[in-house]
Amino acid sequence: MRCTLFWLMHWRGIIVGPKSIRAIWATYSCSKMTSSAGSCRPFLRRSLVLEDEIITSRNATLAALEPGVWGIIAAPEDELSDIQTDHVRPGDTAADYDAVDGILFLSSSGWTDAQQEMLSASLLRHHRPVLIANADLVAPRDTGFSLEPGHFGHLLADQGLSNVRFFGKPFPEVYDLIERSLAGTRPDQIIMCGDTLHTDILGAAARGWKTVLVTRDGLFSGHDTGPFCRDAGLYPDWRVSRI
After folding, report:
1. CA 214 to each of CA 148, 201, 211, 230: distance values in angstroms, whole numbers, following the listed order
2. Residue 235: exposed, middle, or buried by beta-carbon count in 10 A (0-12, 13-18, 19+)?
3. Alpha carbons 180 and 143: distance in angstroms, whole number
4. Mean pLDDT per 10-residue run, the chain (243 residues)?
């Protein structure tokens, strides 16, 4: 019996993989996105994928929005054109945060400690849902590591706010979308390639996918991954230096 493997490769926060001879796309970090296909443009230009084949953690998060007025924390350049429910961008007053029915946290770009304090105080006064579209705690940058929405979401959860919900790797919603796009494919026929243990490898392994840890590029660049795998108790099926 012929066995077909579908692989999903992490690329600059994106997961990309071929479906037959076409490409299907999976999650990427929403922290730098201005549109649902923003970071995919190099592949779109090469006709490797159609825009309607892109699946993102942002898609998974927006699908969870309930009716109401949502306060959107997003990068200034994000036009928010894909958000269909009522929404506003909170400003710099406590009243802005008190006035919304929930918080959608898309990006930490420009987010300040003062804004975090106002958000936290507002939610402690009146508990409302908080959706964290990018579950990453940090992201490697040329100048070091940036604090991502997941970090600020955990700060809220640590204060006893129980209705903070995380999306993206390693949480299940985006994997559900990927598997539905590969209907009829067994989990062990999907290979996830990524550079991070607690998102790429953990999330995929929990679904029964095969995993490849990329060691030369990304988070582990310049480091031996062995001790990290042992400390975390997370072991990929394969390791490659670079894809």
Report:
1. 22, 10, 10, 16
2. middle
3. 38
4. 45 43 33 41 57 78 96 96 96 95 96 96 97 90 87 97 93 90 88 88 94 85 91 94 80
Block residue for tokens 């699908």: 63
Domain enclosing residue 21, as ranges: 6-59+170-240
Number of CB atoms found within 10 A of residue 18's CB: 15
pLDDT, residue 40, reads: 57
Amino acid identity, residue 3? C
**25 touches 57 (CB < 8 A):** no
Assess whether 73 and 154 both reside in one domain: yes
Show Cβ contacts of residue 177 under 8 Å, excluding neighbours closer than 6 positions.
26, 55, 59, 60
pLDDT at residue 64 in the model: 94
Given this model, what pLDDT does residue 38 score?
53
Triad 202, 15, 12: Cα angle to 5°: 100
Question: 149-158 vs 113-125: helix axis angle to the nearest 10?
Answer: 40
Residue 179 and residue 218 share a domain: yes
Amino acid at 19: K
Question: Looking up tokens 């040329």, which residue turns up?
Answer: 142
Tell me the pTM. Answer: 0.79
The one-letter amino acid at 78? D
My answer on whether 80 and 199 are in the same domain is no
CA–CA dist 52, 114 (Å, integer): 38
